[in-house]
């Protein structure tokens, strides 16, 4: 998408994920009758389920009855990437136009009754408290289970250094998560030196933009929704306004 807008984009992996508590996750998935539905705010949570389903016996149980039983309940998702992975495991996603946790929480509150069965929420260790807090305030039970941990990608520093030495200072740097800001920013600032003020910093959404502002960097654009098209349009606008 960025290429179609005339940009040359380099993707540098920032994060590594370690999956945990998978036995506990499948144990909970084996009891749809205990829950009112599922909530997914990250593609990684679905990857955790897919790892569980690689085991033949678990996959068999899923295909034979569990998938069907979960499909009588809602599977709430935050965006398109998560929605397509939910479809891959055979469930029907709802709420994919939300785009962030705040809007998904509102969507869930408009559909769920207080004091009904808890929603199962497989999530990461760094999950934000927005969604659990909003649901708690509305009396909607949520059972969180941490299924992955986020760490800095082993090659991050090396990848950034080689980018700067080969291609120089980028016109724009895009962050896709608060963790990305946390792990990357100091390296980018160090490698850019005095030229850091020439870089247009872009965010995939409001949560990431907040993390960037908190870290003291100006946000030149935030994608209207977290899609490649909106991101490309936002960057193009930010760069053209400065006549770069």
From TrEMBL:
Pathway: Porphyrin-containing compound metabolism; protoporphyrin-IX biosynthesis; coproporphyrinogen-III from 5-aminolevulinate: step 3/4. InterPro entries: 4pyrrol_syn_uPrphyn_synt_sf, 4pyrrol_synth_uPrphyn_synth, UROS/Hem4. CDD domains: HemD. One of its GO terms (molecular function) is uroporphyrinogen-III synthase activity. It holds the Pfam family HEM4. It catalyses: hydroxymethylbilane = uroporphyrinogen III + H2O. Residues 4-232 form the Tetrapyrrole biosynthesis uroporphyrinogen III synthase domain. GO terms for cellular component: cytosol. Signal peptide: none annotated. GO terms for biological process: heme B biosynthetic process; protoporphyrinogen IX biosynthetic process; uroporphyrinogen III biosynthetic process. The keyword Repeat does not apply. It is an enzyme of class 4 (lyase). Gene3D superfamilies: 3.40.50.10090. Keywords: Heme biosynthesis, Lyase, Porphyrin biosynthesis. Its EC number is 4.2.1.75. Catalyzes cyclization of the linear tetrapyrrole, hydroxymethylbilane, to the macrocyclic uroporphyrinogen III, the branch point for the various sub-pathways leading to the wide diversity of porphyrins. Porphyrins act as cofactors for a multitude of enzymes that perform a variety of processes within the cell such as methionine synthesis (vitamin B12) or oxygen transport (heme). Belongs to the uroporphyrinogen-III synthase family. This is Uroporphyrinogen-III synthase. It comes from Himantopus himantopus.
């Amino acid at each position: 998408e960025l290429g179609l807008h005339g940009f040359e984009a380099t993707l540098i992996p920032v994060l590594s994920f370690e999956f945990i508590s998978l036995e506990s996750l499948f144990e909970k998935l084996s009891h749809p009758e205990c829950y009112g539905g599922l909530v997914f705010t990250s593609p990684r949570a679905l990857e955790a389920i897919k790892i569980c389903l690689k085991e033949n016996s678990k996959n068999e149980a899923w295909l034979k009855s569990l998938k069907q039983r979960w499909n009588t309940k809602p599977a709430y998702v935050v965006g398109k990437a998560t929605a397509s992975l939910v479809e891959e495991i055979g469930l029907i996603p709802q709420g994919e136009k939300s785009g962030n946790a705040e809007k998904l929480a509102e969507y869930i509150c408009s559909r769920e009754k207080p004091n009904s069965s808890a929603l199962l929420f497989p999530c990461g260790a760094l999950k934000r408290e927005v969604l659990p807090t909003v649901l708690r305030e509305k009396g909607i039970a949520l059972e969180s289970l941490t299924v992955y941990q986020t760490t800095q990608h082993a090659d991050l520093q090396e990848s950034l250094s080689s980018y700067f030495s080969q291609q120089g200072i980028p016109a724009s740097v895009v962050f896709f998560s608060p963790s990305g800001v946390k792990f990357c920013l100091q390296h980018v600032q160090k490698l850019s030196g005095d030229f850091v003020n020439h870089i247009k910093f872009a965010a995939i959404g409001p949560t990431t933009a907040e993390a960037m502002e908190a870290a003291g960097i100006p946000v030149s654009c935030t994608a209207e929704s977290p899609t490649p098209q909106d991101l490309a349009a936002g960057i193009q606008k930010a760069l053209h306004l400065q006549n770069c």
